[in-house]
Amino acid sequence: MDALLANKALTGMGLMAVSVLLVLAELFIPSAGVLGLTAAVVGLAGVVVLFFAESSWWGFIGLGIYLAMIPFSLWFLYRVWPDTPIGRRMIHGSAAPDADEQREAQAAAEKQELQTLLGAEGVARTDLRPVGTIEVDGQRMDALAETTLIDAGTRVKITSVAFNEIKVRPLSRARRYCGRAQLYTRLAAVR
């Protein structure tokens, strides 16, 4: 023990190594930051011991290592750790890597389902000013009026679906202001 204390450079580097081990333990043992705070104190103690070593260069080397560990630790904490099994378990409550894939598959299925509604006709159940509720094939959904405000009860046609946003255009207004031939021309232009 006396030999270890006599060699202050070795003692300081040892304290810094213990600091790194405590930081790693903090990742796996929930301690509400106690291990992390202890790691910081032990690391600083290691740097102070290094400054009292044979040469102050040991202290500057230890300080440089300590300061270089801070950005690396932050990068690891925010970029790498959440993708590890234990990080997923602690952050998301699930260690299954398939959870993200399942969410993506579900989102793709919903998007495909919405794409099948393109061109479908329905009825506005609430006023669309510009957002409201429409009903298509007995299914209610939120929609956005593409051109004007649309009154409840107006027949509408779905003209676009993008980013889970359904845009509709009124059909009955076109029938009110033009003949049947012009209506088909306008409807063909919408498609």
Descriptive terms for the model:
alpha+beta; five-stranded mixed beta barrel; 16% strand; rod-shaped
Tell me the distance between the termini: 85 Å
Poorly predicted tracts of residues = 174-179
Spatial order of the strands forming the largest sheet: 1-2-3-5-4
Instruction: Tell me the β content.
Output: 15-25%
Report on the biggest sheet.
5 strands, mixed, barrel
Instruction: Please provide the count of β strands.
Output: 5
What would the average pLDDT be, to the nearest integer? 80
Shape: rod-shaped
What is the count of DSSP helices, taking H or I runs of 4+ residues? 8
Sequence of secondary-structure elements: HHHHHHEEEEEHH
Helix content: 55-70%
CA radius of gyration: 33 Å
Structural class per helix/strand content?
A: alpha+beta
Question: Can you walk through the features of this model?
Answer:
The chain has 191 residues and is α+β, with helices and mostly antiparallel strands. 59% of the residues lie in helices and 16% in strands. The chain has eight helices and five strands; from the N terminus they run ααααααβββββαα. Strands 1-2-3-5-4 form a five-stranded mixed beta barrel. A hairpin with a 6-residue loop joins β1 (121-124) and β2. The longest helix has 25 residues, at 56-80. The protein is rod-shaped. It starts with a helix and ends with a helix. Residues 174-179 have low confidence and may be disordered.
